[in-house]
Design a protein that fits this description.
The chain is mainly beta and about 100 residues long. Helix content is about 15%, strand content about 40%. Strand 4 and strand 5 form a beta hairpin.
Amino acid sequence: MAKMFAKPGDAVSQSLERIAAEIGPVKKVLPAKHASAGESARQSVAIEGLPASYAFDGSWAVIVTKTGQRFQLQASSEPKSSCKLLAIHLDKFSK
C-alpha cells in the first residue's frame, strides 16, 4: 500500500504498519459517501511535506473489527488522480 503514495518511503510504510496493528482483525468494511460525524481519535499517514490544508479527492470506508470497535478510514488522493495517495486518516470512534 505504501507504493500507492505520491511519495512513498520508509516513514509511510512504518506508519501504515502502526495503523494496521491498531485496527486488528476486521469483521467488515463498508463504503461511505462522506466523513462520519462523532467523537474520535485520529491517526494519519501522509507524504512528507504535506501542508495542514491541501486539495484532495476523498474516499471513505467504515471498518468494524471483530471486537465491535468502529473506525473510519479516509483516503486522500491527489485531485484528478485515482491512486496517488497524499494521506490516509484513521479515526477511532468511541463505542
